[in-house]
Structure formats: C-alpha cells, structure tokens
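Figure 2 data, in text form.
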Amino acid sequence: MIPFINLKEEYKVLSKELNPKIHGILKNGFFILGEEVRKFEEEFSNYLGTKYGVSVNSGSDALFLAIRSLGIGIGDEVITVSHTFISSVDAIVRNGAKPVFVDIQYDTYCMDVSEIEKKVTKKTKAILVVHLYGNPADMDPIYKLAEKLDIFLIEDACQAHGAEYKGIKVGGIGDIGCFSFYPTKNLGAYGDGGMIVTDDSELAERLKQLRNYGQPKKYYHNFIGFNSRLDELQASILRVKLRYLDDWNERRKKIAEIYNKHLQNSNLILPVEKKYSKYVYHLYVIRSRNRDFLKNELFKRGIQTQINYPIPVHKQKAYLNSFRKVKLPVTEEICSEILSLPLHPFLKDHEVIYIAEMIENAIS
C-alpha cells in the first residue's frame, strides 16, 4: 500500500536530531513557554519576513485568536470562502461574527477576487483569505480592496508554509497571518500546534496575553483570555523541521512535476500554478467527474487517496440552517470532483510514476 502520507519515514530521517532535543526537554523539566518556544517564534517569523510570531496550540486557535485580537465580534461580518477546512469558518462564528461567503476561482480554488466587493456591507470588518492546498490566492487586488475599504486582511496560511506571492511569503502580506502545525502539514509538529504572525507590536502583545489567560505576567489578568499555548516539546521538534522546510517544499514541487508530466494527456483537470505564485503543494489535487470510481479503483491497486474537502462548509449540517440559501456554483462543482493524490517529501519517483500509471489504467 502506498500511504497518503508517511510520517514514520520522516521520523526515521530526523530521529538522530530529534531524539536528543526531546530528551533534553524531558531532562530540563520545563515544558510551557520556555526558550524553545521563544526561539521557534523568532525563527519562524524571521523565515516569513514578519516582525512577530505568537505560537498557539493549533491552527484553529490561531484563526480564532487572530479574529479576537482584531476586535471582530457580534454584529460584524467577515468575507471568506466555503471551500476550506471548517475551522476557517468556525473561527469567525466562535467570535460571534457572521461569515459571508464568496465563490472561488475555477483553476486555483482560491477566493474569486471579482466576487468580493459585491458582498461588502457596512458590517464588513475583514476579509479572511485562504491559501488552499499551498496555492497562494491573488493577493494584490484583495490587499488593495481591504485598504480601500479600511478593513482587516487575515491570511489563513495553514496549508501554505513557505508559499510565496510575487516573492513574498504568504502569511506576512495582510494584517495578520495564521499557520497550523498539524502533523501532516508541510511543517508539522508531532501533535497540534499553530502560529500567528504580524508586523504590529501592539497586536502581537495582545495575542501573547490572549493565548495565556489574558496575563501580561503571572497572576495579573488584563482581560478574559484562553489557554492556547504551544509546548516546549513541539517547539523543539518544529525548530529542527523548519531547517528542512524549503528542501521538502522543493521535493513536493518535483513530485508535482512528475504527476503533471505523466497525467498531462489525461482527461483530468490538474493543479494550476500561476505566474505570481510559488505553490508549495501541501496537496496535489486533481479533478475527475468520475472521482468516486477513481478513488475506489486506486484503493484496489494499493494507493491511498483523500478528498479535501467533499462537502463545502455552507453545506455542512452544522451550518446548513444558517446558509441554506447560499449558492456557490463553482465551489459546489469542484467539491464533487476533487481527489488528493499521495504527496510528501519521502515519496519515491517510481511510486509517483506507478500512481500515475494506475490512474491512466483506471480511466482509460
């Protein structure tokens, strides 16, 4: 069986570096908000080119606390997309605000810029743009619109570690950027983890307090906050893995090129990389009108695949009553056709070629 992702192989490669780090933390006996966390925040924000990084316990909390830190709440609206992991939308709702959905582009699956201004009202406080699958959204027109309307621009870069838009790493373009370190991400912990980045010093300080019970220092609480802290063990692991991120992203791109070469003459719709973007291929997503048949055929041939995501957020049971009248034709069509193929830095060339051949056999 060719697994969709192979974290066991990753650990084999990194174990000689990781084990001493982990054992050092255990021997030290300090596990929360220590030097490893501080150094990782500094190193990751430097990698992105942002001034401040505030680590939290998940990408979901990164989005939630980012919105909370901007003062967005009851009665406010945030424009976003429905083709995303549900936490992008949950973060808006958990803050008491209302998500306002726009459709996506047919080729990149990111926010359709032409649809945004139609959805703006007096209640609009932010645009939450998602860099889906590691593919950057078209940020210039979104940034200019947010600036013109004097609203916040939030980047959900949870799947886009190292992706670039016109040479600038995503997450550092808007007012605030959010990352997840879920184990399967391009930069993943061995547990949950997240990061919020910004160039605003006041925002960074507010976030540090929000993640730690509203405390500027121990037992002094300026406001009601949360317990959302990245631990020392995960920070130490992420510091090691950060050094490999660019090389791993290059390997992902190479794998995508092999897929493209072997599938270019098929009737499948393949991923599109725009001239303005550096696509880091968190996922390699194809489209087929016979998606479910193809998925089953590949499984029979020993190939694991996934669907990211089969049901758009506005069609989920949790949100259906609120958004029953919402129509997003491109989103809905794409969600019925997408299929994610195995892609990770430890996938061998011959495995990629085999997967492509099995796809061709299944659809011919």
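Caption note: The radius of gyration is 20 Å.
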